[in-house]
UniProtKB/TrEMBL annotation:
<dbReference type="Pfam" id="PF13379">
    <property type="entry name" value="NMT1_2"/>
</dbReference>
<keyword id="KW-0732">Signal</keyword>
<comment type="similarity">
    <text>Belongs to the bacterial solute-binding protein SsuA/TauA family.</text>
</comment>
<feature type="signal peptide">
    <location>
        <begin position="1"/>
        <end position="25"/>
    </location>
</feature>
<protein>
    <recommendedName>
        <fullName>SsuA/THI5-like domain-containing protein</fullName>
    </recommendedName>
</protein>
<dbReference type="GO" id="GO:0042597">
    <property type="term" value="C:periplasmic space"/>
</dbReference>
Amino acid sequence: MKTMRRVKGYAFVLALILTVGAVLAGCSPEKAGDIQKVRVGEVTRSIFYAPEYVAISKGFFKDQGLDIELTTTFGGDKTMTTLLSGGIDVALVGSETSIYVHQQGSADPVINFAQLTQTDGTFLVSRSKPAGDFDWNTLKGSTFLGQRKGGMPQMAGEYTLKKHGIDPHKDLNLLQNVDFANIPTAFASGTGDYVQLFEPQATMFEKEGKGYVIASFGAESGKLPYTVFMAKKSYIDQNHETIQKFANAVQQAQNWVQKNGSDEITEAIAPFFQDTDKEIIKSVVERYKSQGSFATDGIVDEQEWNHLQDIMQAAGELKQRVDHQTLVDTRFAEQAKQTVKE
């Protein structure tokens, strides 16, 4: 899902793309009559992003006069590079990426304007079934297959481990050298006693008897702006009405997801996951919905923003804290929450 390189992993591309981004800053999306085209890049294709697919499949974006061109940009660094260079108008990615760009310096900052998920989306999976109630201390001395350093999954994972008195770099044999896409395969082939997995891999492993979900990093690490729609400030300034319509459609989808059950949500998003069994999709939707992972509105509040930075700071990935108002614009989500009631 959100594969991130370390902060300095952005440096080699930012020097090139910030200049290009400045040149393209004045570009607006294509228009066709009353329809406004918006190019959206999602960091990965995931059931975790169910409200996004609901907004498309139920026609909520279309009802707002928006034509969404959705592409999967595979990784936080690639998503941000594509956004800054003008390849997409809006990115769906972790809020930490906007902070990484800010830390590198940018005349055209990336602004978070509509939150989609409000918890981490990973789960702790054990190779063997625990005997009795799970005790976090049983992880000590084990081989733990984690996510990539610098990304929110790994940072939320480390935050949770420390919360339970475990130093991930001293108490575990922590493996972070496996590419995101290969983590499930590595665990299935015998690497690690425990693994931190996104869905649907966690549920699939359970059904196949390859592992057991024993804890949720989302439930443990608390609410934070985990996945957010963001755009360059210049784009927002020049496309204020479009951003408001976008936020309205997101809010309508969030309302719909809250009102409907897993069966209805599964039917709405299944076309985006044609290679995944519907029962798996339904199980994943139920798991995410039950732990409150889907945000009920798009507002990135200051408390969540500060909690995100607490987690980044604990992981050693934050050079300096960034004020909420510097990289977050809540006007659009606040208006959408007030006006969109369906």
